[in-house]
Amino acid sequence: MKTAQALLFGFLAVAASAIPLQRRASAPSFSSIVVFGDSFSDNGNGSARVSNGTWPSDKYYKGRFSNGIVWAEYVAGNLSIPLYDYAVGGATTSNSLIKGYTGPKSSIAVPSVVDQIVTFLGQKTPQGDDFSASDLTAVTTPLFVLFAGANDLLFNANISASQSYQVLAQAEAELRDAHPTAEVLTITPPDLSKLPYGFFIDNLAKQQLQTYTNLLGELLGGSKTGAVNVDLRPLFDDFEYYATPEAFGFAALGKYGSCLVGAYGETPNVTICGDAERQVYWDE
């Protein structure tokens, strides 16, 4: 999903730049970006570390769930600030709500967003090392990003968007209490029912995914916590066949299916397409 990641980077960079214009015109720029989330944001320090390098497989790029670097790396690079990426593929918002897992069979337990925040507030790096003096300086005026929730429903169909939102709202409050000068960005995921994964589920499950995504988007977008929310649903709608996928460099059917197929055993063989840059998704 490398090309989509680049577009997402541009979208988020604009949103990040808008925060100081809206509320911090006289304040200094961000000292760092600190990300909490799942495989959308895992930059190789997450799932690969907790699985001792066994997952994701070598069909992915250096421990990321894509064929290149992830959006957070683009944003941090564009802003020329340090990145502290605590995201872990398979993570849920809270393991107390629903446990998250990674691995080809989703059998390796992973830290949730709540756990990731505990690690950060305990002054540990994403690699688990104690903060150095330079790390402490880097997190004086950070931009926190919360990008999670998709796995809550994928691991438990009975979880509601309201439950996931409450966890994220509480997480934001804890981050603000610890870092009053920080800003917070939340991200609404694209319509989960339209992920390539949707090909393998029935219509009822698809409806549950769509309803969950829409409600989570409404809750995050209407939040009074002070966070800026980036809603990815309109952006990904532009990649649909009936919209303008070619304008973004994708094939007309580039949003349907994925380039990498079979990594999770859903097909007998593992295959990789020959036109990855024309596809929106790298895997299911």
Work out the helicity level. Answer: 25-40%
| The first-level CATH class name | Alpha Beta
- Evaluate the radius of gyration: 18 Å
Largest sheet: 5 strands, parallel
CATH level-two architecture: 3-Layer(aba) Sandwich
Intertermini distance: 10 Å
The total count of helices amounts to 9
Shape, principal axes of CA atoms: globular
Please provide the ordered H/E string of secondary-structure elements: HEHHEEEHHEHHEHEHEE
CATH superfamily: SGNH hydrolase
Strand order, sheet with most strands = 2-1-5-6-7
- Structural category is alpha/beta
Count of separate structural domains: 1
Which fold name is given in CATH as the topology?
Rossmann fold
**Low-confidence runs (pLDDT<50, min 5 residues)?**
13-18, 20-28
Strand residue content: 5-15%
Q: What is the mean predicted local confidence, pLDDT? A: 89
Number of E strands: 9
